[in-house]
Amino acid sequence: MNSPEKVTCLIIGSGPAGYTAAIYAARADMKPVMYQGMQPGGQLTTTNEVENFPGYPHGISGPEMMVQLEEQAKRFETDVRFGFITKVDFSGEVHKCWTEDGHEIHADTVIISTGASAKYLGLPSEQKYLQMGGGVSACAVCDGFFYRGQETVIVGAGDSACEEAHYLSKLCTKVTMLVRKDDFRASKIMAERVKHTPNIEILFNTETVEVLGDGNGVTGAHVRNNVTGEERTIPCTGFFVAIGHQPNTEIFKDYINLDETGYIKYEQPGSSKTNVPGVFVAGDAADKTYRQAITAAGTGCMAALDAERYLAAKGH
Ligand code: NDP
Fold first, then answer.
1. d(C-alpha 251, C-alpha 112), whole Å
2. pLDDT score at 53
3. What is the mean pLDDT of the chain?
4. Within a 10 A sphere around the Cβ of 123, how many other Cβ atoms?
5. How far is the CA of 105 from the centre of ligand 1 (A)?
6. Which H or E run contains 98?
7. Domains detected in the chain
8. Residue of 123, 159, 187 to mutate, ligand 1, most atoms within 8 A of C-beta
9. Whose CA is closest to 241, among 172, 152, 303, 145?
């Protein structure tokens, strides 16, 4: 049995939050070790073009941006590893973590940047056009711009769906909202706003049967009313899914305080501290409100600075 590896700063997850934390931690000589996780590069790797990250006046593709962030982290000698952490024990002074192949790591500080995963309907046609970047998206703020002057469909009935439908309504000629029950889950004010937006049509009791396309991109949605059984086709070029996100925090739940939906709770507002000293959080694992690459990067910076200060206070 190998003895545990000792590291000063372990970063779990490789989206913009993790890479930014790595850049700051590495430049502060904390010799960060990063485990990239199940989806190296995170959610941005399923985004086409990123046009709203400052510093890229002509935009950049999501995967390309993540390659650049990785290069930047490695330039300062971040140890970026393919693999993921499957178990932690944060009960003691030393933070113990295990990789999927049983390698044990003892970390002075841990930065959790495991992100969140958008939920999808799971239809094969939806997944097909999602994978090929052909018109399926879970982020209207990221991708809505590509559907300017076109018709879109959005699935969901929560605050996110209402907010995103409203966002799309300003860009698109028509937005059709598919709500599976006979009412919204969203707060009244958000629901009222979409109800009063003239180019948003709301179809209640309506589920998606299939996302339609021509092999290159989305052309429509085939839907069914689950009360009357009536089926119809709605033409659209963008199919948005806003049925919630799942933060990737399951392995931390025995030690880290989570809210009722699984997001990590900040111990102290305005910092990246969790309830466990020496364990910090950055990015979407603690953010159900903004969920942007730039906010994730910002909190990644905060986590590295907080980790550095924690170590300094302990005399490192
Ligand atoms: P929610 O979990 O609140 O809502 C998810 C919605 O998706 C529900 O209406 C649900 O329908 C629907 N849904 C789930 N699965 C399916 C499916 N397979 N087919 C069709 N519809 C489906 O997620 P949100 O992302 O909207 O919000 C998450 C949290 O963030 C909430 O607490 C919300 O209030 C908060 N938030 C607040 C905002 C604000 O205040 N500005 C903005 C955005 C989010 P059903 O109702 O039938 O279960």
1. 11
2. 92
3. 95
4. 18
5. 37
6. strand 95-99
7. 5-117+245-313 (3.50.50.60), 120-241 (3.50.50.60)
8. 159
9. 152
What one-letter code names the amino acid at 139? C
pTM of the model: 0.80
The first and second tokens of residue 161, run together, are 């769906």
What digits encode the pLDDT tens for the residues 118-152?
999 999 999 999 999 899 999 998 899 999 999 99
Q: Beta 49-50 vs 104-112: how paired, if at all?
A: unpaired
Instruction: Report how far ligand 1's centroid is from the alpha carbon of 199 (Å).
Output: 21
Query: If you ran DSSP here, which 8-state letter would residue 191 be given?
Result: H
Q: Is the CB of 243 under 6 A from ligand 1?
A: yes
> Helix 16-27 to helix 62-75 angle, to the nearest 10 degrees?
20
| Residue at token pair 């590295």 | 304
Neighbours of 244 (CB within 10 A): 17
Alpha helices (runs of H) in the chain, residue ranges in sequence order = 16-27, 62-75, 124-131, 140-143, 159-169, 188-195, 293-313
Mutate to test the pocket of ligand 1, among 117, 288, 292 (most ligand atoms within 8 A of CB): 288
Contact 47, 126 (CB under 8 A): no
In sequence order, the β-bridge partners of residue 245 are 118
Nearest atom of ligand 1 to the alpha carbon of 119 = 15
As a whole number of angstroms, the distance between CA 104 and CA 182 comes to 50
The amino acid sitting at 93 is E
Is the model's pLDDT at 46 over the cut of 70? no
| Residue 98 pLDDT level (bands cut at 50, 70, 90) | very high
- Dihedrals φ, ψ of 311, to 5°? -65, -40
Q: Contact, 7 vs 31, CB < 8 A?
A: yes
